[in-house]
Amino acid sequence: MMRWLYRYSSQDYLSREQQDTIDAVFEYGRFFPENVMERLRKDGLTGQVHCLVSQEVAYLSMQEELEWELPCDPLCLEAECDVNGYRFRLIQNIADLIDAGIGLQNCVASYQRRIMNGQSSIFVVRKNEKWIACIELNRARQVVQALGPKNKCLADDSLEVCRLWANFYQFPIATPDLAKGA
Q1: DSSP string, 85-129
Q2: What's the rounded Cα separation, in Å, for the pair 5 and 19?
Q3: Is 124 within 8 Å of 100 (Cβ atoms)?
Q4: What pLDDT, in 10s, does the model give residues 110-150?
Q5: Distant-in-sequence, close-in-space partners of 10: CB < 8 Å, separation ≥ 6
Q6: Which residues pair with 120 in a beta bridge?
Q7: What is the rounded CA–CA span in Å between residue 98 and residue 100?
Q8: The pTM is what?
Q9: Which comes out higher in pLDDT, residue 33 or 90?
Q10: What beta strand segments (E) does the chain contain?
Q11: Of 32, 83, 96, 148, which has the fewest CB atoms closer than 10 Å, so is most exposed?
C-alpha cells in the first residue's frame, strides 16, 4: 500500500486534496483503523476518502495535548482582525486547529506538522460564529490556499473580503482560490 502511495505521490498531476490525503496517510496511516485503509485501497484518492482520512487525523490529533501551542509568525499574528463582521484569526494551538478542521469539514487538522516546521501559517475566517474560510500562508507569507467549508471555492462577499484582507496585509496571492470568479 505504501509503495503504491509513494509511486502515486511522485506524479505531477495530483490535486491539493489528493496530496493532502497522501501526506496524512504517510504521517498517520499506521494508526488508522483497517476500514479506512481498505476504503483508500478500494476507492483511491477520492474526495470522500479525503474526508474520511481528515476525520481520522482530527480524532488522532485530539489524543494529543490539545493546548499545545503552535509557533506563530509575529507578522502573521499582526494580521488578526475583523473586517465587516468577518473575523480573521491565526491558529495558535492544536485545539483550535482541530476545531477548524471539524468546523470547516476539511483536512486542516493534518497541517500540524507543517505549522510546527514553519512551512505554513493557518488563518480561519468566521462570521457570526459561522465557519467561512481557511487560509494557508507559506513560509514566504504567500496565500497558497483559501477555501471554504468542505474545500469549496469562496464566493461573493467572503471571496472579496479574503482578497482585500490578503492585499491589505501585503500577503501575495499565489493561488487561483482568491481569483475573481474562482
Answers
A1: TEEEEE--BHHHHHHHHHHHTSSGGGGHHHHHTTSEEEEEEEETT
A2: 10
A3: yes
A4: 888 889 889 999 999 999 999 999 999 999 999 999 999 99
A5: none
A6: 138
A7: 5
A8: 0.72
A9: 90
A10: 81-83, 86-90, 120-127, 130-138, 143-147
A11: 83
Dist. CA 80–CA 124, nearest whole Å: 10
- pLDDT tier, 109 (very low <50, low <70, confident <90, very high otherwise): confident
Answer for the pair 101, 108: CB distance below 8 angstroms, yes or no: yes
Is it the case that residue 49 has pLDDT exceeding 90? no
Q: What grid cell was written down for 181?
A: 470568479
Q: How many CB atoms lie within 10 A of CB 7?
A: 9
Q: Output the nine-digit C-alpha cell for 47.
A: 474526495
What is the band of 50 on the pLDDT scale with cuts at 50, 70, 90? confident
